[in-house]
């Protein structure tokens, strides 16, 4: 699967994982294994952790902790497509001034907030005990100068292609905007809301708490290609 026009990414399924190629990435951009590790570690939550066997090898494009202008190639053993997208995001965040924030909105129908943390924790524990899963939703806040017309296409294409749990994507106020007259409209927020269905196979308890870093990576890459 190939995405992007300015910076391109190509995901290939191989026997034991994913081969990821990043094309047209600038040279002399500092990047370390710790940068990748910090972002990958954000997938961990109560009741879920990544595959402990996963391993990432840099084949080309990064030497002495800097990009060299060649195609950046990773072999991600025992990795999956969404996690490979995190590697892309870690690199792309080096090229952008304002990194989008991603916040869980609700988990299993429970609004995500301090007052409800205990309820969410109990719901997740129940799902773990019953080997079940919870759906959820996340909100992504984008820079005010985002060209939404260009952003929408690439973000949606990647999200639906890499994450089968994605059920719907709304930009701006979603359907609420249809109830307003033009004279009542103020500046519209640059935001995205993604709804996720429960994970059928791997039983991730609450996707919003694991996939937030993945959606941030998709958003950053989409901004650079908008």
Describe the model.
By secondary structure, this protein is α+β, with helices and mostly antiparallel strands. It is 29% helix and 26% strand. The chain is built from 5 helices and 12 strands. The chain has helices at residues 33-41, 81-92, 117-129, 148-162, 208-224; strands at residues 2-3, 8-14, 17-23, 55-60, 62-63, 66-67, 72-77, 101-107, 110-111, 136-141, 166-171, 191-196. The protein has a 5-stranded antiparallel β-sheet, covered by helices on one side. The chain has a 5-stranded antiparallel β-sheet with strand order 9-8-10-12-11. It is globular. The two termini are 19 Å apart. The relative contact order is 0.19.
Short description:
The chain is α+β, with helices and mostly antiparallel strands and 226 residues long. 29% of the residues lie in helices and 26% in strands.
């Amino acid at each position: 699967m190939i995405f992007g026009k300015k910076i391109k990414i190509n995901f290939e399924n191989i026997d034991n994982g994913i081969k990821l190629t990043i094309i047209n990435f600038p040279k002399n951009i500092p990047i370390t294994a710790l940068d990748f590790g910090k972002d990958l570690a954000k997938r961990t939550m109560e009741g879920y952790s990544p595959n402990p066997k996963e391993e990432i090898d840099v084949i080309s494009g990064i030497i002495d902790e800097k990009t060299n202008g060649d195609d950046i190639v990773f072999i991600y053993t025992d990795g999956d497509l969404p996690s490979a997208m995190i590697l892309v995001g870690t690199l792309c965040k080096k090229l952008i001034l304002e990194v989008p924030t991603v916040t869980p909105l609700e988990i299993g129908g429970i609004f995500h907030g301090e007052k409800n943390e205990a309820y969410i924790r109990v719901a997740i524990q129940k799902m773990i005990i019953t080997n079940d899963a919870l759906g959820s939703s996340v909100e992504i806040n984008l820079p005010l100068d985002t060209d939404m017309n260009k952003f929408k296409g690439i973000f949606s294409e990647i999200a639906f292609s890499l994450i089968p749990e994605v059920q719907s994507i709304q930009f701006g106020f979603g359907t609420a905007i249809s109830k307003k007259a033009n004279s009542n409209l103020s500046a519209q927020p640059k935001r995205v809301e993604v709804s996720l269905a429960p994970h059928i196979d791997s039983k991730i308890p609450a996707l919003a708490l694991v996939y937030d870093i993945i959606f941030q990576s998709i958003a950053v890459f989409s901004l650079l290609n908008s």
